[in-house]
Amino acid sequence: MPAYFSDQSLRFLHNLSRHNERDWFHAHRADYETHVREPFQRLLADLQPDLAAVSLQFRADPRPVGGSLFRIHRDTRYAHDKSPYKRWQGAKLFHARHREVPTPSWYIHLQPGENFLAAGIWHPETPVLRRIRQFLVDNPQGWRRAAHDPALQRRWRLSEDEMLVRVPRGYPEDFEFRDDLRRRNFVIVRALDDATMTGPRLRQTIARELAATAPFMDYLCAALDLEF
């Protein structure tokens, strides 16, 4: 089976990080389309049956606009860094209701030496965060199976970005998973090396990981009263 991405895909993103300028990007836009965006769109299209086998509520949408693929352009309006382009390409496998309410998602990240898969909900607003924390307190055994299964933890790790210093007020200090109550993001991450991202079995790898992380995503959906 042919690979989706290649060394040229990674080389383009590496060069973009060194020449993050509009003139350079426009001069090399054909390389971006051929080696990054179009392969990503093919991957998303091919993942549709794999994702449907895990959940009928999530979408892998290959459309160039309004689909799963994030724009390569950065929003620099409020950023100190005015570089016009991201140094990576990412795509989100989103819930059917993602435009209506906060939802978890799967994420695929292509970046030389920093590729990864992620699953969960990133930066939820405070009311959503409270719902997840309370659901965790009320359903600790389900959380154990969803997030702390040894087979899952061999390949995935819970993100520790932006952890609170202590358990939030109102939650039990002696709770079995008190460290998880300190989370600002309920996300699990798995790194992928460049050889996997450019290899012929990338789709199979992602499909396997979608299935492996389904209990985690199902748990978050249940916490937010979403169908999985």
Automatic annotation (TrEMBL):
PANTHER family: CHROMOSOME 12, WHOLE GENOME SHOTGUN SEQUENCE, DUF2461 DOMAIN-CONTAINING PROTEIN. NCBIfam families: TIGR02453 family protein (TIGR02453). This is DUF2461 domain-containing protein.
